[in-house]
Amino acid sequence: MTERRERPRRTVHVGRVEAVERLTPHMVRVVFGGEGLGDFATAGHTDSYVKLLFPPPAEGDPEPYDVKAIRESRPREEWPVTRTYTVRAFDAGSVRLTIDFVHHGDTGLAGAWAAAARPGDTLRMLGPGGGYSPDPEADWHLLAGDESALPAIAASAEHLPEGRPAHVFVEVAGPEEEQKLDVHPLVRVHWLHRDGRPVGAALTEAVRALSFPEGRVHAFVHGEAGFVRDLRRLLRVEHGLPKEALSISGYWRLGRDEDGWQSSKAAWNRSVEDEESAALSGREA
């Protein structure tokens, strides 16, 4: 199944905080509602995502809020900062949008905002975009990622097709970060605890050790760019999976904030694809 990733729509929505819940020590759930989400709608992808705009709305901001106009008319230091987050759930009937935030204390931007958010606070967002949903025709499914991918993995796991086996691998800091996933009986969920090891080490080992079931797999692999690169090589080169069988991307990269990562991501992806092409060519020779 060839995945076509949709770009986020440029409509600016305004979500009003309805509830805040601490799911685990490092995961905060924020539920948004309000009239500002009246035009919000997803295309049904389980990895739907939005671009959150910081700082939050303030008195004197132009309305309607036009990101393009602001970038064309104001100095860069006055541009909004964007952070990309998965739509954990959206209920069109009640107009409730749920987003889960990884929180590491006062560091970072979006996580710190979520931890301090209170009902009545507002936040602007662009989107949603998306491109992945579990292929109902695949013989089995593989989902793998770290905390940053957990909301998308959880949303996808809830929509895995009945009667098809699946392996779900999630690496988190420790057992206190595990969440209950709503899955059918043929889905095996593997929680991997980092316990001080480098990000992705336990995850890569576990996926590499998996005995792949027979048949065509549809795989979703997202998270820190280093282990995503390693797992991409495993799936593409060692297991010979075609690109259309994969939804795979680095959500973030160690040592970079989102702005730095996004500015270098295209070059990183090209280098990964070049290495992959050389390895595949070597196998075919």
TrEMBL record:
Coiled coil: none annotated. It comes from the Bacteria. It holds the Pfam family SIP. Signal peptide: none annotated. Residues 265-285 are annotated as: Disordered. Residues 10-135 form the FAD-binding FR-type domain. Gene3D superfamilies: Nucleotide-binding domain of ferredoxin-NADP reductase (FNR) module, Translation factors. PROSITE patterns: FAD_FR. This is Siderophore-interacting protein. It comes from Nocardiopsis lambiniae.
